[in-house]
Specification:
mainly alpha; Sodium/glucose cotransporter; membrane; transmembrane; Na/Glc_symporter_sf; cell membrane; symporter activity
Length: 599
């Protein structure tokens, strides 16, 4: 039986119980689900064929002619970063390991501040479609090329994980195999992204995010009421050991702790939100800096709230099944499916609610997928095709659309690889950590260290990428081999029907991977996956500074607009001596363009 397929409705299973028969989609659910997909497709049709703004040039297709409003852009950003991994993976993680992930709210606040005051001013002044053109301005062409390839690598590996997450949810609630539903959903997303451009992406994101919020709030409200209120939800969670607020253990080999979440995820999110084309491209669709900052703050608050809601949903799941774990009972095959099962269990008497929930899950995934396809195509076009070929606007637009189609097909094919790997939560963070730390290190060197040169940035990124790839791949192989496991919190099953009918039961609970010892796994593969991005950033900065010093430092003046506003006041007071690669204090140095200082 397909490991991604649910126990419910499988053709190889025994006859389902009465409860399992009820935990499937109704006709109303199917109508709601396919209506939302139809509306998304129609938005693509409108902007592709009927809107006044024709998608026949790259400025309109990729940036919406820089005339988008604050609210839809903020909603689009939030929808993009609240993927199905957040909706499904986070509640499952909380159910299994406790709520330490709440500390992501601290990371979210730090990321928002960095975006508003460090990165956004630089990118909005430059007004480039690809944020990696900054790297060429600051360093050199080969570093920019490598950064673009890193982003492509990230999108092609991360997007299939995002698509797979809602597919297993849909499989749980319908009994339809993921291999059937995944191509259908991907084709709809590829269609409206290819023909509608960034306008279709942003407005479908807004529509889908609204559906996702509706599903989230209804499920949270219904689940809380069924458990007797918020206080009772937390009481059950505390009794089950799920309320882990401050695990201050500094051990880097743990699966989760306060430091792993608040410090480790901060660097990953700063990279994924602050210096990736999918975010920078959206900010540039807004005409002025003030409005762009408003969009960032709205996004930041929304991002944090939805993450915390997902943490709370994990408590709701535990409260519902605190004495009868669905995995042990056999009604759910994988922990990543447990939230979908919970929704059907709680809302099976309310027609349409399960359909609305799955719409929300798919909305999150479609938003992330459409964003990845649109921004990756724009990045590859700006960095690899435009510099080499002189294309008319209409031809260029057609080329970008063809690239969107190609990227979508590749991501679809890779979904069938993802289903063989580990949990979607850890897998998504691991994949992102490999590239995000490296990219963040390059931008940090560029914006904060005017003496670092292109050679330092390039070799720092190479060392970081190779190191993190070895760690991530090695850890994944250890997981697949069953050598690297983390003991879960206890799950009770004494409340399940038929418990101890034989009178031989000696326990009322179990732990997943109980008493498993990871000490035989090489220490480098035991490093917590949430630290990957931070480790990558540190490697780039350390190696970049050393190589720059050894190679003589930066030989040209760095324009002020390539440095973050926090550094510009200091840099104004420095006189550059290229023959020594040093700075000395003065009061008169103003730098506005790249120029060599005469000897």
């Amino acid at each position: 039986m397909d490991p991604a397929s649910p126990a419910v409705g499988g053709e190889d299973d025994a006859l389902p119980t009465a409860l399992e028969q009820r935990l499937l989609f109704s006709a109303v659910d199917y109508v709601i689900f396919f209506s939302m997909l139809g509306m998304s497709a129609m938005i693509g049709v409108y902007y592709g064929f009927f809107a006044k703004q024709k998608q026949n040039n790259t400025a309109e297709y990729l940036l919406g002619s820089k005339q988008m409003k604050v609210f839809p852009v903020a909603m689009s950003l939030t929808a993009t970063h609240i993927s199905a991994i957040t909706m499904l993976g986070v509640p499952a993680e909380m159910y299994k390991y406790g709520i330490q992930y709440w500390a992501c709210s601290i990371s979210g606040l730090i990321v928002t501040i960095f975006m508003v005051y460090v990165f956004l001013p630089v990118f909005h002044e430059l007004q480039t479609v690809s944020c990696y053109s900054y790297i060429e301005m600051r360093f050199d062409k080969r570093t920019r090329t490598m950064a673009s390839l890193l982003f492509m690598f990230y999108c092609l590996l991360n997007t299939p994980v995002i698509i797979y997450a809602p597919a297993i949810a849909f499989s749980q609630v319908t009994g339809i195999n993921v291999h059937i539903i995944t191509p259908m959903i991907c084709c709809i997303c590829i269609f409206y992204t290819t023909f509608g451009g960034i306008r279709a992406v942003i407005w479908t994101d807004t529509l889908q995010f609204g559906a996702m919020l509706c599903a989230l709030f209804v499920v949270m409200t219904l689940g809380t009421l069924q458990l007797g209120g918020v206080i009772n939800v937390f009481r059950l969670a505390e009794a089950g050991g799920r309320l882990i607020w401050f695990n201050m253990d500094p051990d880097p080999y743990m699966r989760t702790s306060f430091w792993l979440v608040s410090v480790g995820l901060t660097s990953m999110w700063i990279s994924n939100i602050g210096v990736t084309p999918e975010c920078v491209q959206r900010f540039l669709t807004i005409p002025d800096m003030s409005s762009a900052k408003k969009a960032v703050w709205i996004f930041g608050v929304g991002h944090i709230l939805v993450k915390l809601f997902s943490v709370y949903n994990g408590l709701l799941i535990f409260g519902k099944y605190h004495d009868c774990d669905p995995i042990h009972e056999g009604t759910v095959q994988k922990y990543d499916q447990i939230f979908a099962y919970y929704v059907l269990d709680v809302a099976r008497h309310i027609p349409g609610l399960p359909g609305l929930f799955v719409v929300g899950i798919f909305s999150a995934a479609l938003s992330s997928m459409s964003t990845s396809m649109n921004t990756l195509s724009g990045t590859l076009f700006e960095d690899f095709i435009r510099p080499r070929f002189a294309l008319k606007d209409e031809t260029a637009s057609t080329v970008v659309k063809a690239m969107v189609l190609t990227i979508g097909v590749i991501c679809l094919l890779l979904v069938f690889v993802v289903e063989k790997l580990g949990s979607i939560f850890s897998l998504a963070i691991s994949v992102s950590g490999v590239t995000s730390g490296t990219l963040l290190g390059i931008f940090f060197l560029g914006m904060f260290s005017p003496h670092v040169n292109g050679r330092g940035a390039f070799w720092g990124a190479i060392v970081s990428l190779v190191s993190l790839s070895i760690i991530a791949v090695g850890a994944q192989l250890e997981i697949l081999g069953g050598h690297l496991k983390y003991e879960s919190l206890p799950f009770r099953y004494d409340g399940c029907s038929g418990f101890n009918e034989t009178g031989t039961e000696t326990s009322t609970f179990y732990r997943d991977a109980a008493h498993h010892d990871n000490s035989e796994v090489p220490w480098v593969f035991r490093i917590g996956f949430m630290y990957y991005s931070l480790l990558g950033t540190i490697i780039v900065i350390a190696v970049g500074i050393v190589v720059s010093i050894l190679s003589g430092g930066q030989k040209e003046r760095v324009p002020l607009n390539l440095l973050t506003p926090w550094v510009r006041p200091l840099y104004r007071s420095l006189d550059y001596a290229p023959e020594k690669g040093e700075y000395k204090l003065t009061r008169s140095c103003e730098m506005t363009e790249i120029e060599k200082i005469p000897k």
